[in-house]
Amino acid sequence: MHKSLAWLLAASVLAGCSSGQQQFADLEDFMSEVQSRPHRPPEPLPEFQPYEPFAYSAAGQRSPFEPPVEQRRRPEGMPDVQPDPNRVKQFLEQFSLNDLRMVGTIERESEVYALIRDGRGGVHRVTAGDFLGPNHGEIQAIAESDIELEEIVPDGVGGWLLRSRTIRLAQDG
User: Fold this and answer.
1) Beta bridge partners of 124
2) Which of 90, 114, 115, 165 is least enclosed, having the fewest CB within 10 Å?
């Protein structure tokens, strides 16, 4: 029984080999045709332009990462201001003005308050004299549609400038 199984296996292997040769006959014909063609020499390499080095001419000038040598002067009539380092920071000073939204106003005993939504979704009541944002922004006036404030910002050469900002009533509620 084992011998007949071995003969059967050998016969099937040989049959597979002979059918494999017929299977690749077209490939062998193609290969012999390609090899019989005349050989062409490879195309020459393209000619490259010689490298021209760049001469950096600004090496002797001021670096763009250093402040200018000339000192800027404070505009005429601009008060000499600086933030109070001893003032206790208020809660809304930790948020950027871009994160704060005016969502409404309320009036109580003839004093107007603005309602401000912070970057975390909380709503806070503020009035004139309160501070907003990281640049010491003090609220100057509150209207139904906006809040006017003045920030104390660095002028870039070691001093401080006043900058007016407005926070408008958010249209999305």
Assistant:
1) 116
2) 90
Distance of alpha carbon 130 from alpha carbon 92, whole angstroms = 9
> Judging by DSSP bridges, how do beta strands 131-132 and 111-117 pair with one another?
unpaired
User: How far apart (Å, rounded) are the C-alpha atoms in residues 164 and 133?
Assistant: 13
The pLDDT of residue 123:
95
Could you read off the pLDDT of 19-72 as tens digits, one per residue?
555 678 889 999 999 888 888 888 999 998 899 888 888 878 878 887 665 555
- State the fold for domain 91-168: SH3 type barrels. (2.30.30)
For the chain, the structural domain boundaries read 91-168
Which pTM does this prediction carry? 0.56
